Amino acid sequence: MYQFRDPIHGFIEVTELELKIIDSPSFQRLRNIRQLSTTYLVYHGAEHARFGHSIGVMHLVSRAFNSAVKNYERETKEELFCKIDKEWYSQILRIIALVHDLGHAPFSHGSEVLFDDGLEHENFTKEIICGTEIAGYINDIGENFVKEHNAGEKYLITPELIWLIYGNKNPELDKRYIMPDFKFLKSFMDSDLDCDKMDYLLRDSHYCGVNYGKYDLERLLSSLTVHYNSKDKIMQLGIESGGIHAFEEFVIARYFMFIQVYFHKTRRYLDKLLVDCISSVLENSKYPSNLSEYLKLDDEYIIAKIQERADKDLNAGNFVKRKVMSCIYETPAHSFAESDKQLFNAIKKELKNNNFDIIEDDANKFAHKLSPVFEQYDDPDSGKEIPIIDRQLKKPAHILEKSILLQSLRKPINIRRIYVDKGHSEKARNIVYAMLNGEEE
Question: What CATH number is given to the structural domain containing 172?
Fold first, then answer.
């Protein structure tokens, strides 16, 4: 076994075959893909990359899977999986976690608007998993698993199987898809309580130097369990009733990270400026669709190209010098009232009438969807909600039935902002102040 010393999780062990994936050029590229786009220009410690995050998620899925299965078997006195299936699923999850971010563009989500129509970073992730040297390393892991466990071909692990479980839009249509097991596995990477979120909240909080994203990881992991109904073929990642408060803390941590970090006013402006800069250095102002060309791009390459243009391109020069516009008005965090919209538009109109050049931003997202009811389990998009398990009850409870606190967080975040040039910000603020207070200019 090989060990990585991680600032969040301590020592993380990987096998020699997993290390081959990590040492591959496609994975090493993640060292130069910042986790939080331009946030390092706001919180100066946020220089961390997708590389460490991916290894951290791999570590967490092992812990989360083992904890959930162990707690289920302890409480029910029943075996959820046979020994070989349990080890097979654990290995599959580790690979999924390790490769799940391979297709990210430079500066991660901050520049995804520059993909060709219909493309997302997941399309490149699939190509990397199935069409580069990583495909061979995944096959090696599968063949080694079969050999070590003296198992049949059923237990081969292939790139196509990894993508079927993690990335396929309608996996249930494939005869290789095992229901409900594979859907259960995906919930560790895509649900209201997945290991991707578990890692990046703690990691982002640590590197930004803030406390917003912190929560009790150990209590949360120890509270994981499984809701299993063999009759209806339902298998869901769940939380024991005693862990509700740890789950609440986790949800609230993500909410605060969006409000305070991910949707920070300066970071949002810098992301817009970055997109303008990147589009000017890319052929056709879009990321290439060819994989080999795409993999040549990372943050360092993009920064170098922007610096080359800094003397002749206004946006490039502003980005290199970190010259930002001032946010002179923003709506409340959950701005959906018609009156909020009318006021925003009135302010925007008045500023334009006064010959201000403005930039608008609309930051909106569910910090946590927390559907109020359980979806139909045979729906491809279902299974993401986390049931609360009380073994004394015959059916699982929904988190919103148990948590008054989380009921208040169901509304999406929606923050609209107006920016003007810093040199004219005082005059613009005076206009906004007058409008907000009903004063005549």
Answer: 1.10.3210.10
